[in-house]
Amino acid sequence: MHHLPRDTGWLEVITGCMFSGKTEELIRRLNRARYARQKVLIFKPRIDARYSESSVVSHSKQELVAIAIDDASEMLSHALDAEVIGVDEAQFFGDKLVSVVERLANAGKRVVIAGLDQDYLGRPFAPIPHLMAVAEYVTKNLAICVRCGNPADRSQRLVARDATVVVGGTETYEARCRRCFDPSSATAGQRDLFAPSEPPPAAIADQRI
Ligand SMILES: [Zn+2]
């Protein structure tokens, strides 16, 4: 980022699969702003209570104090005097997040959003794809496939459940590459439809849901 915008707000999206370092990158950017004495606020969905009720914590246990909210619109009343706004686990806020962060950026604020771009079946995970389209800056992080060591961009759910939102860490998910990702093993109703040695493309799994 050599040419930063001046006298305007903007959107930054940090995305990728689980264990790709999204939250660490969010914390790094927000800390850099805090060192410059900019007023920073961080929001996270209340649904995500994995590590701490009031902090944004990455898997590597870095930490920043965050405001847990139920609805994206709550950011508008909190963020009046903030210059930089961070949003962690943004995929849990739903489509409403798009209009909220657009308003904040239009009001002159820098908004840094971290979230998953694909769900447990490899489908685009709203609202991140939309945010990637309207953001000034997009960073897609890759993890390392736990199976083979290739660059990984998918989150393999290790427990068979049909819900899109199953919050968890290393016991529930692992990073997988395109070749090793197996969405058929991630849903309770789909387990025996595909041979384990031939993971189906995500699009085919989609049609069978
Ligand atoms: Zn792999």
Short précis:
The chain is 21% helix and 24% strand.
Describe this structure in words.
This protein is of the alpha/beta class and 209 residues long. The chain has a domain at 10-141: 3-Layer(aba) Sandwich (Rossmann fold), CATH 3.40.50. 21% of the residues lie in helices and 24% in strands. It has five helices and twelve strands. A six-stranded parallel sheet has the order 5-2-6-7-1-8, sandwiched between helices. A two-stranded antiparallel ribbon has the order 3-4. The structure holds zinc ion. Residues 145, 147-148, 150, 176-177, 179-180 line the site of zinc ion (ZN). Residues 145, 147-148, 150, 176-177, 179-180 line the site of zinc ion.
The helix/strand series, from N terminus to C terminus, equals EHEEEEHEHEHEEEEEH
* Mean pLDDT score: 86
- Rg to the nearest angstrom? 18 Å
CATH homologous superfamily label of the domain at 10-141: P-loop containing nucleotide triphosphate hydrolases
Question: What percent of residues adopt helix (DSSP H or I)?
Answer: 10-25%
Overall outline: globular
Task: Extract low-pLDDT stretches.
Answer: 190-209
Q: Determine the number of helices (DSSP H or I, runs of at least 4 residues).
A: 5
Fraction of residues in β-strands: 15-25%
Q: Which CATH top level class of the domain at 10-141 fits?
A: Alpha Beta
In quaternary terms, these chains amount to single chain
Distance between the termini: 41 Å
Order of strands across the widest beta sheet?
5-2-6-7-1-8
Report the CATH architecture of the domain at 10-141: 3-Layer(aba) Sandwich
The biggest sheet, with number of strands, parallel, antiparallel or mixed sense and barrel status, is:
6 strands, parallel
Number of strands: 12
CATH fold field value of the domain at 10-141: Rossmann fold
Structural class by sheet pairing and helices: alpha/beta
